[in-house]
Structures are given as C-alpha cells and as structure tokens.
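User: I'm writing a tutorial on reading structure tokens. Could you give me a worked example: one chain, its sequence, then its tokens, then a sentence or two explaining what the tokens reveal?
Assistant: Sure. Here is the example chain.
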Amino acid sequence: MARLIAALLLSSTLLIGLVQITQAAPPPPKPPGGSRCGSTTCAASANLTFKDLDKVFDPKIGTPGKTITMTLRAGTEPYKEQLTATDAFMEIPLYGEQKLVSFDPLKTNWTLRDSNARTLLIDIGRMTPGQEGTIQIVTTVPTDLNRPIMEMNLLLNWNDATGSKRKGWNVLLPLNVPLPGPVVLPDVPSGSSSKMPTTGPFAAQPVPPADQYNSIESWYIPATHHNLSGDFLTYWLEHGSVLVLGYPISEKFQEQESGLVIQYFERGILEAHPENGEPYNVLLKSLGRESDKATEAITPDNAPAPGSVFYPETGHWMDGRFVDYWSKNGGLAQFGFPIAEPTIEGNKLVQWTERARFELDISSAFTPLVQLGLVGNEFAQIKGYLPK
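And here are its predicted structure tokens:
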C-alpha cells in the first residue's frame, strides 16, 4: 500500500504531460523453483505446481454473499531431475469479507492449520516425484469488493535438496454484480465497419459512480473505458504510465495458454508473477520473443552509429538514442535486451527488444522523441481480441 500511495503522489500530474523517470533496475531473478520449461533444460527441483487452474471455481461466476467451491489440484511437473518436496504447504489469502465455510481433504492426508485465519495454510508435507492430490475449499463470495471480478492468489511453498521454494499463481472469478451506470461505449471509428467487442475483457467498461471513480487501489481510465488496479496500477504508475505503456485496452484476465493473469495496454502487456515477489511480481510480456522478431546475433566489431552499445547477451547493438530511453525508463528489467539490429521502416528507426519495440521518427524537423510501438494493440488484433 505504501508503494502505491507513493506512486500516486509521484504521478498526480502525469496525465497532463509530466514525464516520470525511473532508474534502471537489475534483471529480474529466476522464479523460485525454476522457470516453466521442458525437462531437457530445467534444473533439478521438486517443482510443485497447481493444475487445472481453469477448473478451480464452481460455479464459474460468483454471487456476492453466496458460497463458491474451489477445487485445488496440486502436484509436480517434469524437470530435468525431479526431487522430493518436504514441508510443503498451500497458502491462500482470503479477501474482504470472504469467509471459510468448509475444508475437504478428499483422498489426501493434507490438513488445514487454522480455520479462523485470514490466510488459509494447508499442510501437504512430503510430496514425491509424480505425486499429486486434490482438495476442496468452500468459501463465501465477499460482498465488499466493489468490482465485477475477484482475484485470488494461490501459493505453494516447499523445501527440497536445492533449498526453500515459493511459487504463486493468480485465478480470477467473475462476479454476478450489477454494473454501475451509465454505460458509455466508445464510438466506432468513422468509415469503419468493424465493431468493438461488447463482452469480455476488451469490452468498454461502464463509468463507476462518482465515489468509486478513482480510489487508492483502482483507477477508471475514461480514454479507453477500462479499469486499472492493484499491482498493475502500481507498475503502470512507477514505469512511465501513459507516456511509456499507453492506456489499458482491456481489463485484467487469465490467459488460457499460460494461466497467467494479464492486462493489455496500448504499448505492451503486463503479466502477474506473484512467485517472484516485489519488485518483479509484474513484468512486461516478452512480445518481441513471442512475435519471432529476434534475428541472428552479430559480432561487436563495428558500431553501427555513434553512441551505440553492444549487448553480448543477445549479440546485438542498440542505437544510442534508444539506449538513453531504455536506461531512463526501466532498462533491462522493463524492456529486456535488444534482439535485433535497428532498421529503417518508412520514416521511422525501429528496434526490437525482448519486451518492446522502440521507434524514432527520423523525418521530423524537430529533435525526435523515442516512443514505444503500439505492440499491445497489434498483438490484441493478431489474437482476434480487437478488430483490425
């Protein structure tokens, strides 16, 4: 909360034109327990994980004040060398007025430590390679969230031969609540036959009542008719806000392919990584990599332009004007390394990094400003979320 308040104070005038600068940060650490990768490349670990995250809630839409059943299936996923986990336990924070109704270990011997605690701790104990188990937890749906979605954290903790591990996932439950009015939908562009979505996370959201318009934890962005809250709001404010990432073009939602909670912005996509802990619990999606923009590495023999910097990690030069923007707005932790050489596309100098596309209008008579490309918009169109 303190970080969010500080970010709000720093950004109070940002939307009327002030540029917020953040210092370059060290690269994000590898997630505890390793990354999600194939069995031929991962290091040894017990590597516990939640499975079937799309089947957690019953019913699929919650009603405030009613009960919801959570079916949690935990087990191991393959690593290069599977280890045995000891002292394993689940960690599930409850939110608002959410209350535990019942805990059912089903066929496991897993136990709930304290039924009155605000964070549910379920002891698993020892888990051998290939072992898994399923439990069910019934809670009430809180009535005091004042939003159409409930976000819950699921965390797994354990020890193995390589040390202590902690991994986290987010799951989202849509809530059956009346939407505050009036509903204001964006206009369809003049001369366009394409229709914006009217349902789902990319649909325009209604304007909240005046007393809920902007709170300390949630902002409504009228420019794109979307909400921004929690860790995503904090990250947006601390990493350049609209001047770097643009406005949100979706609500947060759970991506089917990865299971991650994400939110689309005009110039990028934010991913929740609660397993990393602050300040790396939110990261920009690696759109450069996922869009196959990486090119073959080159040698550092000759700099392509004065001020360029060579990054041996990926074998590419970054244009000096991009280096300055890169370092002042988050650096490696924000954008990743360059994965291609600068190229001229029309009147722009363009360069891809792992998580962004840097652009410079070289036709301008004035001192050109570096901007990030609208890769969030483009990726949403490629995925079919928004019309082209």
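What the tokens reveal: The two ends are 38 Å apart (CA to CA). The first helix runs from residue 2 to 10.
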